[in-house]
Amino acid sequence: MVIALCGYMGSGKSTLGKMLAKKLAFDFVDLDDYIEKKENMSIPQIFADYGEAYFRQCEYSALASFLSADSTVLSLGGGVPIADENKKLLKGMFVVYIDSSFEDCYKRIKTTDRPIVKQKNKSELEEHYNDRVAHYKKVANLTVYGNNLKKMTEQIVRFVKEKI
Ligand code: S3P
Asked: What spacing in Å lies between the alpha carbon of 95 and ligand 1's midpoint?
């Protein structure tokens, strides 16, 4: 089973993913880290040197390579659930949407070097967040809300344990 965590940048996917993997004794993979290792470049560098479209191709190939993985928690980049071809791949995984508020996400991302954050001001980012929600809801098998990552992790563990 692959548990894929989706949600906006700064929603807590990686922190929650590590906690979840520990509780379930699963492997943890952050898809952005995986791409950075594969390309031997940071995400901001990939965007700057090759553009967003190239980064999206990397995301698709990286996601596809986990389709047959087992006992893995995969933290997805915030843009993964947007492309139709990625939506198709996500059908083969158990997808959890980490539904953190825009303000909580914004607090965590505003001073980071994420290319999309650098390209937009706060109100543009809020619009971007709102546009993405429908995509996250579409791919999710389970949605967890709030800002208490520990409680959210426990909720996912309870749900998943009934499925394994
Ligand atoms: C992106 C989110 C980032 C990273 C890239 C693009 C996006 O991942 O993949 O900067 O389009 O939302 P996180 O959601 O882990 O920050």
From this structure: 17
For 58-100, give the DSSP string. Answer: HHHHHHHTTTT--SEEEEPPTTGGGSHHHHHHHTTSEEEEEE-
> If you measure from the C-alpha of residue 162 to the centroid of ligand 1, how many angstroms do you get, rounded to a whole number?
31
Cα torsion 52, 92, 155, 132 to 10°: value is: 30
CA distance 147 to 32: 22
User: How confident is the model over 50-85, as pLDDT tens digits?
Assistant: 999 999 999 999 999 999 999 999 999 999 999 999
If you search the block for the tokens 């139709």, which residue do you land on? Answer: 84
**Coil vs helix vs strand at 109:** helix
> Which residue minimizes the CA distance to atom 9 of ligand 1?
77
